[in-house]
Specification:
Layout lengths: L1 E6 L19 E2 L2 E2 H11 L4 E6 L3 H11 L4 E6 L6 H6 L2 H4 L4 E4 L3 E4 L2 H6 L3 E7 L7 E5 L5 E6 L8 E9 L2 H13 L10 H10 L4 E5 L2 E4 L3 H15 L13 E2 L3 E3 L4 E3 L2 E2 L3 E3 L4 E3 L2 E3 L1 E3 L4 E3 L2 E3 L2 E2 L4 E3 L6 E2 L4 E3 L2
Parallel strand pairs: 1-4, 1-6, 4-5, 8-12, 14-17, 15-18, 16-19, 17-20, 18-21, 19-22, 20-23, 21-24, 22-25, 24-26, 25-27
Antiparallel strand pairs: 2-3, 6-11, 7-13, 8-11, 9-10, 9-11
Helix pairs in contact: 6-7
Length: 330
């Protein structure tokens, strides 16, 4: 089985960070979005990955090859962003007749991934949501089989949202439906959607079984990213290293502090993730993500997302600062 991870999106909802950093590599609870996804799949037994890359794709490739040298990884370029359906179709020559596990590169789910992989049927991950209009939605019959899927319906007939995790046994049928949709210009919301191809498979008799996820984290926006960071910090029970206390500094767990950081005269936490080699002095930081090689001096940050190589002086309450930025708020 091969895992397909589309990571070609520009991440417009997380700009300015995604001007210089792929969304999948944004730090999260001491790791990255992509590493959390990949580690889960590796634990489930996946050893071969196919990445659909585009914007800043070379950074994705360098990260994967350096962090996971023992895995078999392929990289496919999506030059024009025409939707997830178009992205998946580009993997056809690599996957061929193998079963596949498709995992969207900006969502983190918690489920029994090994059980999903070993299922004799194709499966779609689902979770109940309050407002399903912003998601792909699945309808289920009395026997528990998925009878219909639709992308972002205006009038949903179900509150079961597709969470971005798909196990496909009939790979050639999926590719054929994707190709037919593109040939016939069948789009939803101006893009070729994976959901439409899944609906094509259902109409041609392919059986899809649902599986529920215990948690589903959407990392596509600043507010949900910070919320996810807080949840995962608590889950991983991360805290600063008690063997290396920071000068005149109070650490309020849970926090994650990278290697080589110089922190003093500050209060850090709760729910803070700081990248490697960052300097923090005379500052208060809570509920925030700070990138690597940044410099914070005399600032108060809460609910903030700060990129790498950022320099901030002065006082602030809530910021959304990209990489290579210098700000003096004094």
């Amino acid at each position: 089985m091969k895992a397909i991870i589309p990571v070609a999106g520009a991440g417009t909802k997380l700009r300015p960070h995604t001007y210089t950093q792929p969304k999948a590599l944004i730090p999260l609870a001491g790791r990255t979005i992509l590493s959390i996804i990949m580690d889960q799949l590796v634990e489930g037994g996946i050893k071969e990955f196919v990445f659909v890359v585009g914007y800043l794709g070379e950074k994705i490739q360098h990260y994967v090859e350096s962090k996971y040298p023992d895995l078999t990884c392929h990289f496919v370029q999506q030059n024009s962003r025409e939707g997830t359906g178009h992205a998946i179709l580009l993997t056809r020559d690599i996957v061929q007749n193998d079963e596949m596990l498709i995992v969207l590169g900006d969502t983190i789910t918690e489920c029994n991934i090994k059980e999903v992989i070993e299922s004799p049927y194709s499966m779609l991950g689902l979770k109940k949501v309050d407002d399903p209009r912003n998601f792909g939605v699945a309808e289920i019959d009395d026997n528990g089989n998925i009878t219909r899927v639709v992308e972002k319906p205006q009038i949903p007939k179900s509150n079961l949202a597709l969470v971005g995790l798909y196990k496909i046994k009939e790979s050639q049928q999926l590719y054929q439906c994707l190709q037919d949709n593109i040939n016939n210009k069948i789009k939803s919301h101006d893009e070729f959607q994976l959901t439409d191809a899944l609906e094509c498979m259902i109409q041609h008799g392919v059986r899809f079984s649902p599986f529920k996820v215990s948690n589903w984290f959407d990392c596509g926006r600043k507010d949900t990213l910070l919320e996810t960071n807080a949840i995962l910090l608590k889950k991983y029970k991360l805290a600063s290293n008690p063997v290396l206390p920071y000068e005149n500094t109070i650490i309020i767990p849970p926090v994650s502090i990278g290697e080589g950081c110089n922190i003093k005269n500050s209060i850090i936490g709760p729910n803070v993730a700081i990248g490697d080699n960052t300097v923090v002095n005379y500052s208060i930081v809570k509920d925030s993500i700070i990138g690597s090689f940044s410099n914070l001096y005399e600032v108060v940050l809460k609910s903030s997302l700060i990129g790498s190589d950022a320099n901030i002086r002065g006082l602030s309450q809530s910021l959304n600062i990209g990489d290579n930025t210098e700000i003096d708020l004094g």
